[in-house]
Amino acid sequence: MHQGIYKLANPNALDTPAMLTYSHIVEENIDEIIRICGEPENVVPHAKTHKSSDVLNIQLNRGIKSFKCATLKEAEVVAGCGASEIVIAYPMVHPRKLERFSNLIKSFPGTDFRAIASSKVHLNLLSEVSKVIDGDIGVYMDLDTGMRRTGVQPGTNANEFYQSIDATDGLSPIGVHVFDGETLYIPSFKERSLMVKRNIGLMEEIWRAANTSGIQVKDNLAGGSWSFQHYADNPNIRPTPGTWIYWDTRNAEMEELGFRIASLILGQIVDEDAEMDTVTIDIGSKSCSSDQPLQHRFSLVQYPDTELVIQNEEHAVVRLNGAPLNVGDFVIAAPGHACTLTVKFPYTNVVSKDGEIVGRYVHDARDRI
Q1: DSSP 112
Q2: Residue 177 CB: number of other CB atoms within 10 A?
Q3: Is 113 helix (H, G, I), strand (E, B) or coil?
Q4: 141, exposed or middle or buried, with CB in 10 Å at 0-12, 13-18, 19+?
Q5: Rounded distance between C-alpha atoms, residue 320 and residue 276, angstroms
Q6: Does residue 98 form part of some domain?
Q7: What would the mean pLDDT of 142-154 be, rounded to a whole number?
Q8: How far apart are CA 242 and CA 239, in angstroms?
Q9: CA within 20 to 30 Å of 101's CA: 12, 68, 210, 271, which one?
Q10: 153 and 9, same structural domain?
Q11: Once rounded to an integer, what is the mean pLDDT over residues 100-115?
């Protein structure tokens, strides 16, 4: 079986739907992220896309040692692999999360754990954790540059909040954290570049105010899948990309980037409706994330003109538009959002360049506790 750039020697060996990951493309994508960011130490990628210690170990072996995590389970897996630095890029409020965070710090003394904060409540809770671990916690101020999800608003509020980190017992200010989700799905390179230039200006205001007050700014993290490359040339910022290692069809709209889609879904045609010019594929929302608009949830690699018209839990109805597909045919589908594909499967099948199944990447950071 050969569809697009992807080979699969024996699709009958896998029950569908199944997740596929091409290891040589994963390696290529790692090469590309290091090229863009200059060196492995300059990039702090998210663990949320792959959620796998197997993939983490590949990155660690290539010199990438710092990671962002959205969940404590991700952080536990990343720490267990031996990462030197972990940033919990999610506000921790629940007592159980704070307990797990303190346990992580005590269990992995060789790893530098850092947190983000944007509320006085966050600071007070992290201060209590510092007492439990009997040591200071490094904290980034989470700055909202326009997404209006989490973060301190720019301006006087941000300057004052950064100083309040320094004034809180047991906390040490590190710098500014920015996830500029407002740049998502903006195809124009120039428009995204201008947005990032504005964001850097907002960060610089905080740096200047901190310097005037004699407060340190040691490190800053910024960017997501749609903007990280625009921060890469700033010596005071480490980019924090998300989806890059697996890539997907939405991110591939950024033609300036050289990543390729590494993880896909193997599906099979299970029914057809000649009158409606459709076939039904076993790639439902339980095997491919439904967080994207219907037309962007997946794309058939070999048949880009097909159109997803219905998706239910275990079914996907696709209008053929001339594609020669029949019941029993296998298809390879590229996801619209790679980060939410991983959670659909306990593991992904690792496929070689020649199409042979050579192992698995286990999604051991997938489930919450």
Answers
A1: E
A2: 27
A3: strand
A4: buried
A5: 9
A6: yes
A7: 97
A8: 10
A9: 210
A10: no
A11: 98
